[in-house]
Amino acid sequence: MEKHIFNAGPCKLPQPAIDAAIAAIRDFDNTGVSILSISHRTPGWERIMAETEQLWRELLNIPDEYAVLFLGGGASTQFFTVPANLLKNKAAYLQTGVWAKKAAKEAKFYGDVEIVASSEDKNYSYIPKNYVVPTDADYFHITTNNTIYGTEIHTDLDCPVNLVADMSSDIMSRPVDVTKYALIYGGAQKNVGPAGVAFVIVRKDLLGQAGRPLQTMVDYRTHIGAEPKNNSMFNTPPVFSIFVMHETLKWIKKMGGVEAMQRRNREKADLLYNEIDRNKLFVGTAAREDRSLMNVCFVMQPEYKEHEAEFLEFAKAHGMVGIKGHRSVGGFRASLYNACELSDVQALVACMQEFEKKFL
Ligand SMILES: *Cc1c(COP(=O)(O)O)cnc(C)c1O
Question: Which of 103, 122, 232, 351 is the most exposed place for a label (fewest CB within 10 A)?
Fold first, then answer.
């Protein structure tokens, strides 16, 4: 039976990227050596690194003033690396979920942290509005897509101070005006590759001003390097993860870039939200205007609550993978990242309609 993968991360990747990965494990770049065994100093690999950076710059229109880095440690390592590099006195954070809360916690090691607004009062089911960002903050940190709760900030905010964004779960899902941000980071495993690599896009002129000594690996300037550049090669990069990211970006480009991704993602999300709103068994958990195009969270209506486990079993038997909601929200979550096809969502919707028939 065909599997429809809705995992929240690591998640579904484009089949061409997976096929290229399999081929490269056997033989990388006609070298007769597996990608798992090559030296990261071989010219063939240096070309992949350069192309990967180029693809990022092309797809997101990243200007030369920004460095693009590929680092280990996941998004969680950036929670402390960002303040280590950018926080002088005070930082402001928008608390839209546990990832945002965890990011703020790490910033406290380096200075004052002001939580400008939080939606914790309603289990992070909405994005706070009408808050004021203090103009004396070194930066304002947001989480553009809240993976666990299915809420998303759909626009690039105008911000009076440097804007920093965790875009782990919506990077490359839509066009972004990079020039509005001081720094963008995230783990690759939600939309641009497998686990094992994080991306950082940072405006170079902001670095080296935090006024504290930094460990070599924590200082972004180490990874940017002087001429000749380190290009994220100061130490061994996550070679295989970057290879698959490279193939994933090639696929995004071939499909028409981030504008095409946005169209696809809107179509998929519309289809599923419309079914949730129509189907008498289900109800969405996120505020309508903040609904995420990436993670669709829903639960059973109170009067059908006892059938939740039954629906999960039913869906599983129909090939659905990974639709159990995060424990802090419950119910269901379908992650519709770039590689998820409209046909996957159609299969899930058919499953919801089929299940509803039991109660008509
Ligand atoms: C998954 C996730 C993280 C954590 O990423 P790791 O790479 O596992 O450290 C951080 N922020 C957001 C928004 C996420 O979805």
Answer: 122
Is beta strand 145-146 parallel, antiparallel or unpaired with respect to 151-152?
antiparallel
**99, 268, 290, 344: the active-site residue:** 99
166 is catalytic: yes
The model carries a pTM of: 0.97
pLDDT tens, per residue, the chain with 360 residues: 899 999 999 999 999 999 999 999 999 999 999 999 999 999 999 999 999 999 999 999 999 999 999 999 999 999 999 999 999 999 999 999 999 999 999 999 999 999 999 999 999 999 999 999 999 999 999 999 999 999 999 999 999 999 999 999 999 999 999 999 999 999 999 999 999 999 999 999 999 999 999 999 999 999 998 766 778 899 999 999 999 999 999 999 999 999 999 999 999 999 999 999 999 999 999 999 999 999 999 999 999 999 999 999 999 999 999 999 999 999 999 999 999 999 999 999 999 999 999 998
